[in-house]
Every structure is written in C-alpha cells, then in structure tokens.
Amino acid sequence: MYSERPLTRSLTQLQCPRCGGALSASADQVSCRHCGASYELVDGNIIDFVKGDAATQLDADDYDNFHAIVEARSFDYYEHTRQLLGERWPASLGSTLEIGCGTGFFSRALVARAVLSDIVLTDVSVDMLKICHAHLDRGGLLSRAPISFATYSTMDQCFQADSFDTVIGMQVLHHLPDVPQFLAELLRILKPGGRAFFAEPARPFQQAVALALADLIAILLGRGEPYSDDRQALHNWIAQQRLSILHQRDKEFLLGLEDKHMFVGSEFERTASQLGFATVETLPTDYDPSGLKMISGLMGQLRINRAFADEMLGLLPSITAPHMGLLAAKDQSASYLFWLQAPTQKRNGPVNTLDDVTPHNANLDDQIGSASKDRLPPRCSIEVATELDKNALKVTVNGWCLMTQDIRWLRFRVNEFVHQRPVWLPSADVHLAYNPHGTYANWNSLCCRVLGTFCVPGALLPAGTFWFTVQAVMMDDTIVDLMLPRPVRAGEQLHVAM
User: Fold this and answer.
1) Phi, psi of 141 (to 5 degrees)
2) Are 24 and 92 found together in one domain?
C-alpha cells in the first residue's frame, strides 16, 4: 500500500505550461515557482491545467451508460491488450501516464493489475476525472501506487522532458486537433527507450463497412420496403462515416467534430518514424474479416430492433465480402493498437514536425466510388435563396449533387467571398430516382444532400448586383463548374440544375 500524497511524486514530472517552471502545491492550488501562474487543485486532487480552454462534447454523466462501461469489460479489455502486446509489455510499466483516461475504463484494470511505480491520469474534462477518481476509490485502488490526476489538452507542455517510461491512450488520438504535434510532444516526455501504445479506429476497415452497409440500404430501397426508423439509423451512420472519411485532410473542418480522425496503419507508422521514434508497429486489435462482428455491435449501439438486425445480418455476408476482401490482413480490424518506442539515445534539438498523419491515400481511395472511374456529367438540383440581413447577405442552400466520384465540397463564391459545404446528408429519394441501376456508388447516391446557411459581410458586396458561382470540389481537388459566374441581386432565388 502507498501512503505518501501522490501529488508529491507527480510534481517532479510536471511543469508550468506557461513557462516550463517548477511547481509547488498548497491545499487548493498548484503554483509556478518561476512565473507565479496558479492552477486550481479541484477537490484537493485534480490539477486543472486546462481551465476550461478545451472542451469535449462527451457527456461525463452518461458516458458509462452510453458506452456500456462496466468493471468486467475493463478487466477483459486490459487482458486482451496485454495478450496482444505479448513480449512488448515489460515486467514493469514504471512511471506511467494515461492520456484521455475518461471515466477510468482502462485505468481501473491498469491500476489493479499492472506493475507500475506511479501513474498520472489525465483527461481534458474535470468531470471525467472526478468520476474516474470515484471509480478507483470505490475499488480500493487509490492506495496501490502514487496516482495523480490532471486536466490535459495535449496542446500544452505541462510535463517535464524524459518523465515517463510508459504512455497509454485508449481511443484518444482521434479526438486530437493535431496528432503529429502530440507525437512530437510524446517523444519529448518519454524517457530514452520508453514506450507508448494507443488503440485507435482503423480507416480502411471503417470505410469498407460503410460501403457495405450502403449497398445493403440500396437493396432494401430497391425492394420497395417501407420506411423504418431502423433503416434510417443505419443510413444516418453511413452518412456520418462518409463525412468523416472524405474530410480527413481538412483540418479546419475536423476541428468542429468530436471524432476527428481515422487512421491508416502504414501512414501512422511513416509519420511516427519520421518524427524520430525508433520502433512503430500497427497491431490489429480484433480480426473481423467479414465485418459482421463490428456491424452486429453497431446495430446494438444504434438500438436497432433485434428482428431487423437479425434479418440484416443474414443478408450481409455476400454484401460485405467484396469490400472486406480488398483489405490487407492488418487492416481487417475495426481498430489498431499502435506500439511506439523512443530511441535509447535521443537526438538533441527539436524533433521534426509533419502536417498530416492521415494524408490522401490513393490506393485506399480507389476503393471508393463506382466500378467505373469515368466521370459522367454531374447531376444536381440546388435551391439558393439570398436576402439582405442587416449589413450582410444571407445565403441559404438546399439540394443535392451527384457524381460518379466523391465530392469533397460544394463551393459557393459570391464575388471574392468563398464558402464551402460538405455533400453528405442522407438522400434516399435521390438514390431511388437517379441510381436504380448502380451507375453511382451507393454511398454517394445515398448521401448526396447539402443544406445550410452562410453570410457574406456587407463590406464585400457593392450596391446592386454581385457575381455568384457554384462549383463541386472533387477528392483530387479538381473543380467541376455547376453554375458559371452570373449576376444576382439580393433577394433573388436561384435554382442550379444539371
């Protein structure tokens, strides 16, 4: 049993995020000895470095219920992870840091069963850390080792260099705004030869499942079966996946999403290696070559009626096979476990930084789209309404656009002002009208709507008319004109049709 105040040990690993100075603790706060900055000590045990500057859309109070997190699952997942890592798992994890521990799903088993000298548990949310602390307290685990808690956004340097033997993150990297920046910081805080592992969603697998489910929805629509909430739930999930997959390169757009990234194993390995890690490996967490295991779990998560789910699972094997058969063996899993090890001799000076950890992957994107890569003329029907709103022009767009290749954006240009909107909303009616023979990829025709409003500052609009243009931006960044520039007056309504 450990009796020393955990904060005493962690202060040797922490530093002031503002200046990098050493910290000291009082009853209710932690202060920098150099610049005097102070950080609240919430409930006497959670150092709040974030101070509300970063947020999560996850509901702390409902998180465990929504994700069906119970203690037994925590221990099962921990043992599965240990077995997967095999000899990579050391006899002792040493000084350990868990990034994004949430309510303590992995932390509970980690503290209970792992051999470690001390551990710092972090999350961006104070509320998540409070729940995590409560779980560990109920389990009698707080005295097993020095355990500290701190809010951490991954954007601030609140850890001293060479502080940790092991860093762990379970489903956390895909939430981060800048993964390469975090990996560079990870390399800084790991001790020479230290290791890290992260479980994260696999884009090739997720993409294949989305394509297969789109084909399933197309079959149901072709049968003329009546609308159901269950079918719509699957349709909505496909649309959300498509939105995320097609915009993996668009950093500004991803900032508005809770789940920002999916990963391609080979690209992650390349990025981490270039940043300076000595070893980077991609391990499939759970082989699922048919995709049915994930789809079955998805239907449960979406609360789909059991009878409908069983019927769909009976139809799926022949539908998933063409998509899953294109995946490499290590991609036949819904998620990866990334294993990284720092070099035993770290180089001096700053590590490299890269722009993207999930760049455009031509081989993977060849799986998207129809059997033919030839471009047919676009089809579209888009209503555009304009009106003056105080000192701005309010523009509302509502419609759809369909091509044989994937469309990243519809681009609306008003004089020199440019606004882009994703094409992704569910559109069963468009699919039925324009894709009865499979001319287009089903996930394109089923998710081809665009809807939204944007405002053009009045300073950019001279009195009278303005020039309005509509274009489609493709995945390879080529531009397709849907409406050439034409003069429009405020209050005029347009219909773009092809």
Assistant:
1) -100, -10
2) yes
Cα distances (Å, whole numbers) of residue 422 to 77, 203, 217, 239, 406: 36, 19, 21, 11, 11
User: Do 321 and 444 belong to one domain?
Assistant: no
| Residue 361 sits in the same domain as residue 404 | no
Q: Report CA Rg, the chain.
A: 25
Q: Which residues contact 68 (CB under 8 A, 6 or more apart)?
A: none
Q: Which of 111, 121, 125, 100 is nearest to 164 (CA)?
A: 121
Q: Containing domain of residue 62, as a range?
A: 6-170
Determine the Cα–Cα distance for residues 363 and 331; give it in Å rounded to an integer.
13
- The closest of 480, 425, 481, 483 to 450, measured between CA atoms, is 425
* Same domain, yes or no: 234 and 271: yes
3-state DSSP helix/strand/coil % of the chain, to nearest 5: 35, 30, 40
pTM flag (> 0.85): yes
**Cβ–Cβ under 8 Å, residues 474 and 368:** no
- CATH number for the domain that contains residue 401: 2.60.40.10
Q: What is the dihedral of CA 51, 53, 56, 60, to 10 degrees?
A: 20
Residue 177: inside a domain: no
Verify that 361 and 403 share a domain, yes or no.
no
Over the stretch 193-235, which tens digit does the pLDDT of each residue have?
999 999 999 999 999 999 999 999 999 999 998 999 999 999 9
